[in-house]
């Protein structure tokens, strides 16, 4: 399935308003062809975040000009005692790190839980899903009655809030209902807008997903 830019934008807005309650978005940055202070040009970022011909759905390109360049994927220095492969979520700075070892990490920009929905602690990836079915929890249905039509599950697809890839977080053998998921909404990155889940740009999420086996440790820092 291929969707044009207007349909993709409308789908992102509809999904975001439904899942996040219409929280205001970041404005577009209009960066042109400039090279950022970290050395990546917008042209290079557009290649990094280009369209993906996935097995089930054609994933549209992400527009990196709508994302602060500090949230573009890159390798950074990050000292940690955690083992390589560990995922560290830093909600206070809207980053997710994958520890690579030797003091390095891959850093991704993220959206995180809004006030009142944030949490911290250790978890692990209990299962992984491609184009997961999304089922709103009863608490969400109480807050947003319109979600009741998906009480039996919303099939995977471009309009599904969980997106193309999902890491489901567990603690002590039980699903926490929190996830790290793929977002098509560029303007959500760098915001606290979710009900506690953590969203990465779809291309970033695919990159993280492909390198993350089940049982991977996830550390969520205090905001």
Descriptive overview:
There is one protein chain. This protein has one domain: L,D-transpeptidase catalytic domain-like. It has helices at residues 5-20, 42-48, 138-143, 202-210; strands spanning 52-53, 58-59, 74-77, 87-90, 95-101, 104-109, 112-113, 121-130, 165-171, 174-183, 192-194, 198-201, 217-220. The model is unreliable at 1-37 (pLDDT under 50). The strands form 3 sheets. A 9-stranded mixed β-sheet has the order 3-6-5-4-13-8-9-10-12, with helices on one face. Strand 1 and strand 2 form a beta hairpin. The chain is α+β, with helices and mostly antiparallel strands and 223 residues long.
Task: Please describe the topology of this protein.
Blueprint (H helix, E strand, L loop, with lengths): L4 H16 L21 H7 L3 E2 L4 E2 L14 E4 L9 E4 L4 E7 L2 E6 L2 E2 L7 E10 L7 H6 L21 E7 L2 E10 L8 E3 L3 E4 H9 L6 E4 L3
Organism: Bosea massiliensis
Enzyme class: transferase
Protein name: L,D-transpeptidase
Quote the distance from N terminus to C terminus. Answer: 38 Å
The domain count comes to 1
CA-based gyration radius? 17 Å
Helical amount: 10-25%
H/E series, N to C?
HHEEEEEEEEHEEEEHE
Full CATH superfamily name = L,D-transpeptidase catalytic domain-like
Tertiary shape = globular
CATH class: Mainly Beta
Q: What order do the strands of the largest sheet run in, or round the barrel if closed?
A: 3-6-5-4-13-8-9-10-12
């Amino acid at each position: 399935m291929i969707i044009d830019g207007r349909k993709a934008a409308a789908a992102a807005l509809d999904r975001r308003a439904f899942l996040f309650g219409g929280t205001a978005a970041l404005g577009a940055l209009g960066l042109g062809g400039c090279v950022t202070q970290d050395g990546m040009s917008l042209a290079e970022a557009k290649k990094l975040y280009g369209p993906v011909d996935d097995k089930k759905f054609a994933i549209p390109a992400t527009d990196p000009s709508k994302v602060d360049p500090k949230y573009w994927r890159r390798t950074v220095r990050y000292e940690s005692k955690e083992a390589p492969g560990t995922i560290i979520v830093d909600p206070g700075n809207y980053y997710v790190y994958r520890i690579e070892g030797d003091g390095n990490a891959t850093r991704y920009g993220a959206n995180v839980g809004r006030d009142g929905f944030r949490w911290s602690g250790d978890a692990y990836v209990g299962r992984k899903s491609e184009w997961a079915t999304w089922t709103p929890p009863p608490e969400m249905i109480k807050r947003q009655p319109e979600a009741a039509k998906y009480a039996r599950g919303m099939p995977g697809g471009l309009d599904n809030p969980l997106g193309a890839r999902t890491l489901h977080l567990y603690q002590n053998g039980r699903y926490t209902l929190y996830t790290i998921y793929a977002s098509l909404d560029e303007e959500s990155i760098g915001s606290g807008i979710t009900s506690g889940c953590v969203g990465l740009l779809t291309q970033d999420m695919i990159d993280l997903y492909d390198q993350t086996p089940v049982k991977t440790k996830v550390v969520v820092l205090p905001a």
